[in-house]
Design brief:
By secondary structure, this protein is α+β, with helices and mostly antiparallel strands. The protein has two domains: 9-157, Immunoglobulins (Immunoglobulin-like), CATH 2.60.40; 180-214, no CATH class. The chain is 20% helix and 32% strand. The protein contains four helices and ten strands, in the order H-E-E-H-E-E-E-E-E-E-E-H-E-H. It has helices spanning 9-16, 52-58, 147-150, 191-213, and strands spanning 26-30, 41-51, 62-67, 70-74, 77-82, 90-100, 105-112, 120-128, 138-141, 155-157. Strands 5-6-2-1-9-10 form a six-stranded antiparallel sheet. Strands 4-3-7-8 form a four-stranded antiparallel sheet, with no helix packed on it. The longest helix has 23 residues, at 191-213. The two termini are 52 Å apart.
């Protein structure tokens, strides 16, 4: 048996989107909604990255979803925050977002951060239901009108890689001892019954031999 070492989700995200934190405030969703069937919940994590603890505390995000004339909005729930000590440092707040799309089709979704800066993060149009394949790829979005967006910042966060198995150097994997399975082996009796029968037969033979010697 090998022990699996799983990298933290944050480290995986930073490895997949290494330039996001360096460009200023942004928003991410992971996983994305592509391929979710109408009426089924899309449950994801929305993360807002803002400058300073005051901006994070002021954030009250709303997600606006549109498809043609259809439009509705959802308020995500705060689940955790990491506020920086200085106003020129980036901190992040994570939210649980649950969305149920009323019908299939192409949907766009925009995150409004709810601060005085009135930042809007627009994410790519996605296809819901129909024959669309379920894809969990997430996305990074920078505020509309920001230099980062003008420079083409943002984009997909690919699915996290499957973690590799690893062992501490020089360590041996622990032995695994399994009990015999309760399966017939072709003789019509389970293995454990045959084993018990053989043991009793052996004890009986030893008893007879001892009596004969006496």
């Amino acid at each position: 048996m090998r022990r699996i070492v799983i990298a933290p989700l944050l480290a995986t995200f930073l490895a997949l989107a290494p330039t996001a934190a360096a460009k200023g405030p942004h928003a991410t969703v992971l996983p994305g909604p592509a391929g979710i069937d109408p009426g089924k919940p899309w449950v994801t994590t929305l993360t807002l990255v803002e400058f300073g603890g005051a901006e994070l505390a002021a954030a009250h995000p709303t997600v606006v979803l549109r498809s043609g004339a259809a439009r509705f909005s959802v308020r995500p729930r705060l689940v955790g925050a990491s506020a920086p000590s200085r106003s020129d440092e980036l901190g992040e707040a994570s939210y649980r977002l649950r969305v149920v799309f009323p019908r299939a089709g192409r949907w766009s979704y925009t995150v409004l951060d709810g601060t005085r800066a009135k930042r809007r993060f627009r994410f790519p149009v996605t296809t819901i239901g129909g024959r669309a394949e379920r894809v969990t790829t997430g996305y990074v979005a920078f505020p509309q009108g920001s230099p980062a967006q003008a420079q083409g910042g943002g984009g997909p966060i690919m699915d996290p890689p499957v973690p590799a198995a690893s062992e501490p150097e020089g360590a041996l994997p622990p032995e695994v001892v399994l009990p015999p399975e309760d399966e017939p082996d072709g003789s019509g009796f389970p293995v454990w019954i045959r084993a018990a029968g053989l043991t009793l037969a052996g004890l009986g033979t030893l008893t007879v031999l001892r009596r004969r010697r006496h």
